[in-house]
Amino acid sequence: MASGNIPCGIGIPHHALQTQSGDMEPIREFVVRAETLNYDSLWMAEGIISAEFNIEPISLLSYVAAMTSRLRLGVAVMRLTLRNPIQLAKAAASLDYMSDGRFDMGIGMGHGTEAIFGYAREGRVARFEESLAVMRALWTQPQASFSGKNWNFENIAVRPRPVQQPHPPVWFGARHPNAIRRAARLGDAFMGQGSCSFEEVKNHFSLLFQYLEEEGRDPASFPVSKRVYLIVDDNKARGERDIRKFFSRIYNNADLGPQVCLWGGRQECLDRLGEIVQAGAKHLLLDPLANEREHLELLSEEIVPYL
């Protein structure tokens, strides 16, 4: 377990595979080693339609579950409006069962690609909320019934049901005030986005805590994290070069990287991470953008114990 006051997860470097051979050995080595270090969880992101290499998250985390027994397994985030909630509830419950209750499920909304999946963009907020309600019904009721605008069924079951009760924690990823308010109303936890700057996420946290209080929920008991894209390197020019390379490839926007990432020497990184903790983070998702295997060791030894 993490030895510092702030538990930390680490991103699985699935984007670094980049081959058609199906050689999963780099991932296997990474997660097996992570199991022995100062992390509490392994995380990945979803990219269903992408020219970039990105394995489907439930599939990859099922593979990872078989090689780990301690670390929690999270995805931040899945586009709920692009998926059938009955099928997704089944997949998530199966993963939670196979991992013996270690799954953290992050959800958000799609970004303009609904038509490709056969859904209308109009009404996507209502469909998002209804989809979540469908999944929670299937996870918690032995024989679930649901009556909604998009889904209607009576006395159907999902087996296996999740090991975690009442269901796997549902993390919300959000940046718009309306979406943050929805996270406070419907979510179990909140994950600040990696593509948002530290200052933006501080504002998101402040809004979240305000909305939680308005909803009658205790902010102190609501898990809050942030995905932090980072490179620990005393050579700042090299670190920025690697960041720009990653953001050019993944986001098609090299200039965004320096605006939202953390890079520099150990103490500088610790100081900046401390700002997020001071803003209310109770967890951090560390996601190195280069030299992932080296960062796995370095972050465990030089960063996590001191947060």
What is the element layout, followed by pairings?
Blueprint: E1 8-11, H1 25-34, E2 41-44, H2 57-65, E3 72-79, H3 85-98, E4 103-108, H4 124-140, E5 144-147, E6 152-156, E7 170-172, H5 177-186, E8 189-192, H6 198-214, E9 224-232, H7 236-250, H8 256-260, E10 262-264, H9 266-278, E11 284-288, H10 292-302
Parallel strand pairs: 1-2, 1-11, 2-3, 3-4, 4-7, 7-8, 8-9, 9-10, 9-11
Antiparallel strand pairs: 5-6
Helix pairs in contact: 2-3, 3-4, 5-6
Question: Summed up, what is this model?
Answer:
By secondary structure, this protein is an alpha/beta fold. Helix content is 39%, strand content 18%. The chain has ten helices and eleven strands.
Q: Describe the sheet with the most strands.
A: 8 strands, parallel, barrel
* Mean pLDDT, all residues: 94
Secondary-structure element string: EHEHEHEHEEEHEHEHHEHEH
Please state the overall shape, judged from the principal axes of the Cα atoms.
Answer: globular
Number of strands: 11
Q: Can you identify the CATH class? A: Alpha Beta
Low-confidence stretches: none
Contiguous helical run count: 10
Strands of the largest sheet, in order across it? 1-2-3-4-7-8-9-11
What is the CATH topology?
TIM Barrel
The named CATH superfamily: Luciferase-like domain
Q: How many individual domains?
A: 1
* Gyration radius, rounded: 19 Å
Assess the beta-strand content as a share of residues: 15-25%
Termini separation (Å)?
A: 14 Å
Which class best fits the helix and strand makeup? alpha/beta
